[in-house]
Amino acid sequence: MIKRDKNKFVVGSTESGVGSPQSGCLSQLQKRNVAPENMQKASLLGRLALHFQAMGFTLNLKPFAFYLITIFGLLALGLNGQAQIYPVQVTPVLVPPYSLNTSDYYNGTTERLAIVLTNTDLQKPVLSVRLRMYIEGQNAKLQSKDGVYYPTITLDAGIPQRISLGDLAPYFNVDNLNFSGITRSMYAQNSKLPEGFYSFCFEAIEVYTGQVLSRKSCSMAYITLSDPPLLNIPVKGESIASREVQNIIFQWTPRNLGSPNGAFNTEYEFTLKELWDTGIAPEAAFHSTQPLYQVTVRPTTLLMGPAEPQLIPGKRYAWRVRAVSTSPMGEQLDSYRNNGFSEIYWFTYQSDCRPPLAINSSVTSGRVTISWTPDPTNNGTPAGGYTLQYRERSLSGSKWYSVNTLENRAVLYDLKPGTTYEYRVGSSCVAGNIGIGTDQTTYSDILTLEISGNPNDTRTVNCGMISPEIAIANRTPIQALNQGDLIMAGSFPVKITRVSPSGGGWEGEGYVTIPMLGQANVKVRFSGIQVNTERQLFAGVIETTYDPNEKQIAAVKEIYDDLKGLVAGIINLIKKREEFTDQYKGTAADKKAAAERNAEEDKAYDALAQSPYLTDAEKKELKEEQKSKAEGYAGLAGDKDCDGNEIKPKKGPYNLFLDYRDVDCFKEKIAKATKIKEYAEKAREREKSLGLEETAHSYKLTKATTFLSPANKIFTLPTDSKIFFYCVDYTSFVNGALYGFALPNGDYYAFKPRDIVGSNFSGYHKVIGGTFGEAYLDNNTYPTGKQILTYIHGFTDETTNENKYQLIEGELDVTADQIDSKYLSGKAHDFEYDTNGNIVATVTAKSPCKIKPQKKNTEPFEINSPGKYTAKAKFDKETNKWTAEVKLDPNLAKNPKIEQKAAAFEKQMSELATEKLNELDGPNGKKTQSVSDTSGFYVKDMNGAEWVRTIGDLGSNVWEEAALPKDYWNEDEVSHKTSTVRMPALFTGVGDGVIEEVTEYPQLIKLGYDVATKEKIRTALWTSVKNISLESIKDASVKFYEEKKANYTSNKPYILNHTVGKDAVQLVSVIIGVGGIKKVAGNIDDGVEKVGKEIISEVDDVLIKQLDGADGLAKKSLKEAIEKGDFDKELVEDLTNEVNDIAVSKGRKLSWDEIKVLFKRGNDFNDKGRLVYQFNEVNLVDGKRLDSYIPGKEIVSRKATTLSKIKSETFENYLKELTMKYQKGKAIKSLKYGKGFENKVLEGEYFLEIPTSNKLFFEGSQKFKDLAKKYNVTIKYLDE
Q1: Average pLDDT for 26-54
Q2: Contact call for residues 1168 and 294 (beta carbons, < 8 A)
Q3: Residue 172: which H helix or E strand, with range?
Q4: Residue 311 has pLDDT above 90, yes or no
Q5: Which Pfam families match (predicted)?
Q6: What is the pLDDT of residues 44-54, one digit of tens each?
Q7: Where are the alpha helices (DSSP H) in 864-937?
Q8: Would you state the pLDDT for residue 132?
Q9: In which element (H, E) is residue 1023 found?
Q10: What pTM does this model have?
Q11: How far apart are CA 637 and CA 598, in angstroms?
C-alpha cells in the first residue's frame, strides 16, 4: 500500500465567524434596522471586544450600544455635511466589447465610450466646460493636458448632454496627452494600450476659469486580448487513413471564454491547403499556397465529408483556424492575439499505412486492457509500432495522453472511476517514429470506454490513501526490475526511476501519477518491498512525502539558462554544501537532507554538462566527479560504510552515530567535488572570450520558424529549437537578424562578433569546447515570393530602461539573392522591416546590456554640410535643455519662387532640431524607432545628431529647390536608397504642388518633419491623397487630362506619380476657382488634405451623373455612402450600366433601397472572391486596380451581375473593359505587396468571374458565348 509520512497534507482552516462576537453584534444591529454604514462602525466594537477577550477581559458593550451608534451617526452626518457639492454631474460609460485601441473610442459608428454631462446648478442656466480625461491602468497612465485647445461644451441646466465618438477625439490626440508607464512614441505608433485593468475617469473643467466643476467620475474595465484557438485533431504531423467515403473530423479548442469580451459573437475561419513542396517546413509552405477549402463556421468541430473537396491519398495537407469576433452591430473586433490565427497543423492523407483493426477494451480491477489486430496491408506490426491515445470524454478539447508500444495490446492504470474516456489506436509505418516531435501515426476512429465506480472514490481524491487493502493471491516474487518498469501499488501505477535489490526485496525511487492533479507525477521512495510476477506490490511500503514547496513533484528542475546564472548558482551550492557537512549529525532529518542536497547538485551538474563551452574530456571528468559526489551523499543518507557494507547502529545512550559511521570518508568525497565550480568558471570565461554575452533567457520555438541572418539570407529552424539573445550594439550590428540558436539535439550555433555591418558575415558556427567550429549548413529549399518571417528586434524600453527583444512576424517578398547561400553568409548590412508587425513574444533582458551609449554627452557639437548649412548645438545646465541653431550657407542659391528670407527658414530648422535633441537626450542618447510600411514611407532609426543632419538637409533642399528632396521619392537619385527618409512619389508631388500655391515655403520643412515623425499626421494625409491617380484625374476632368497628358509619358512609376500629384493640385485650383488652394487652405497640411478630398469628390460627381437609372435621392445617398467608405467607387463604375439596364426594364428609375441591394450584392461577392486568391486589388502603374491576379496565369475581373437582366451591350462592355483596362504587359505598382511586383507586368489569360447562378443562362446564350470568345475571355463561376 501507499502511505503518507507524518505532517502530510496539512490543510489550513478559516474561521467562519459564526457565533463570534462580530457576527452576533451585527445580527443585533440588523434586527434594530441600523443603517449599513453604521453597522460597519459597530463591527469595530465587536473586534475591540475580541481583543479584550484575548487578554482575559470581558467587555460588555450592550449598555452603551445605543449611545455609541448615535455618536457614530452624528459623526457621519457631520462628515457628509462637509462634502463638496459640484454643479456638474459627470457619468462616463464604457460600452463593451472593450478595446485596447484608443482610436476605437472616438472613431467608427458604434459608441465604445460615452460621457453624460448634466448641469445641476439651476442658478447658472448655462455653463461652458471642457473635459479632463484620465486613463489609469497598472502599466500605463494617460492624462489630458491643460493649456491646449479643446472644443467648448455648453451645458444647459437640467438637460443631460452626451459626449462620444468624434467629440472625444481631441482628448486622445497624442499632442494633448501626458504619459506615464508608456512613452509618447509608443502611443503615437498605434494608439494602443497595454493589456490590463483600466479606469476611464473624467472631470468637467470650466473653460474660462479652469475651475473643476465636477467630481472625478470613472468607469472601469478589464481589457485584454484572447489567445487564438488550440488545434486538437488531427494532431500535428498525423497521418490520416484514406477511406472510400471521405470522413475527416477537425476539432479545436476556443481560448476566449474567460475573456471579458468572450460573450460577443465568435466565428471560426477554417482554411485547408494542399502542400505541394514537401522539401520545406509545412508552416512556410502554407503561406505560399492557395486555399483548397475555406469556410466560416460557429462550432469548434468541422466534418469534411463527401460533399467537400476530396483529398488525394499520399498528399500532405495543412490547416489553420482563425477566430474572428464581431460586435452586436457586426463590426469586426481586434480581440485576439496574432490576429486570431492559430498555429498551423499538417497531416498526410495515407493509403499505404492503415490503422489497426478489431480494437477492443476490457476493464478489470481498475485497469483497462486495449487490444487490436494489425491491418493485413501493413504486413504485420508496422515499423514504427503503435500509439494508443486517450483522454476524458468530458474534456474532449484537452490534450491526448499517449502510450507507445510494439505489441498488439496496451494496459492503462491511472484512470478515474465513474468516468468515460475517448481513445484511439494508430499505426506508424515510419521506423523510429516513437518519441519524435510530430505525430506521423495513422489513427483509428475515436472510441469510448467507461470506468465503473464512484467518481468521488477516496482512493483518488485523497492522493494515495488506499482503504481497504486489495487482496493479492499471487505471492511469487519477480526476478528482475529495471529502471522504467511500471508496478502497481493497490490501484496506483508507480513508475520506477531507480531500483536495486535489497534484502530479498527491492529499494529505490519512482513516481506515482495522480490524475486529479492534472496527471502530476508525485515522487515516491521504497525499501524492502516485494513485487509479484504480475508487477503488483504485495508486501512493504511505498512512501510519498508532502512538501509545501512542491519539491515532491517529479521532474521539477531549477532552470540554469545561462552560464552567468549557473556560475552564481554553483557558488551558492558549494556554500550550502559546506554549511551542511559542518553541521551534519546523522539524524533522520540529516539523512533526508543529504539526499535532497545530492538531487539539487545533480541539476547543476546536468546543466553544466550541456554547455558548449566545455570539451568532451572535461564533461567526462564532471560525470565521474558527479558519481563520486553522489556516493558521498548516499553514504550520509544511508546505512552503509565507505566500502558499501551495511552496518547496524550500536545500542545504548552513550553510543553516538558518528562513532560507528565512515562520516569523514563520505564528507571527503563530497568536499573533493570542486571541478564543477572550476569548469563552470572556465566555461564562463570562454563564453566571454568569444564575445557571446547572453543577456536574456533563451526562447524555445513552438513551431518551425523562418528568420533572417545578418547577411539577409532566410532559413527555417525546427520546432523546439532555442534562440539566443546577445549584448550587441545595434548601431554597428544588424537589427532584426538572429544571432544564435540551438537545435533540438542540443547543437549550439552562434555568430562571430566581428561579423558586423560593413563586413562579411561568415555564417553561424558551432560552439564546441569554447571554440568556433564548423559553419551551420541549411539544407532546406525555399521558393521566392511572399513568406512569413520572424525578426528579432532589439531595443531599449524608454520607460523602464530595460533591454528588450521582440519577435515580430512580418511578410517578406523573398528574392533569389536571399536563398543563394546554404551557409547563410555574405555581406552584412541593414535591412528594413515593419516594427508594427505581429509581435509574437517580448523577451526582457535579465540584466542591462553593458554595451550602451556613452554617458550623456552635454558637450557642444557642430555639423557642417559645406555649401549647404551649419548646425550648432549647446546644452544649458540651468534649464537642462539643448538649443540648436541652424544657419544656411550664404552662398547657397535661393530658388526664385521663394519669397521668404533666410531667417524664416533658419528659425524653422532650428526649432525642429532643438525639439528632436531634447526628445532624444542629446546627440548620442536615445534613438527613434524606424518606420517602414507598405505605403512607401520609410524613416531610419536615428539619434539626435542624425536628426539634426536630416533636418538640415531637408531645409537646405527646400531653400534651393522649393520642393521636398528628390532622394525622398526619386529612385533614380544615387542617394535614394541611403536616404534617412523616403516617401511615396505621389505624396511628395502633392506636397510640392500645394506649396507652390500656398507659397509659405518654410511650411514644407515642417511638413516633411511631421510626416517623418508623427504617425497620425502621416496616416491622415496619406489617406487623403492615396486614391489620386491618373485615372481619377481623367474621371474628374477629361479636358484637363487632355491638356496635361503629354506629361504622362514616363514609364517610371515614381516619375509619373510625382507628376500626377502636382497636376492634381492644379486641377483642384481650377475646380475651386478664383484664389485656388490658397483661398481654402491656411497651411500646407490643409492644402494636401483638401487636394485629395476635392479630386475624389469631383470624380464622385462625374461618376454619379452617369447613373441615369437612379432617382435624385438615390444619387445623393450614393455619394454620401461613397464618401463614408460604405461603397467602393469601382463598384459604382461596374454597376452603372446594370442599374441603367434594370431601370429601362422596369420602366422607372431605381430607388435608393433598390440600389443598396445591388451594391451589397457586389460588395459581398467581391469579399468572397478575395478569399480565393492570394493577390487582390492589385494596383497598376496608371492607377487602375485589378480585382484578383494569379501571376503569369489569370487576370481576373469580378462582376456580381445577373446576365438575364442586362443587355448584351453591357456584357460586352464588361469584356471590353477587362481587356482594355488591364492590358497584358502593363506595369504593376502595388505597394501593399511590397517589392514582390517590382518591375513586373501583367501576364496571363483573361477571366471574368460571375455568380454561379448565371451558368445555365450563359451556356444557353450563343450571343453571350460569342462575345466572350470574341474578346478571348474565359468565364469563371463563384458561388455567392
Answers
A1: 40
A2: no
A3: helix 169-172
A4: yes
A5: fn3
A6: 434 433 333 33
A7: 902-919
A8: 97
A9: helix 1015-1025
A10: 0.36
A11: 10
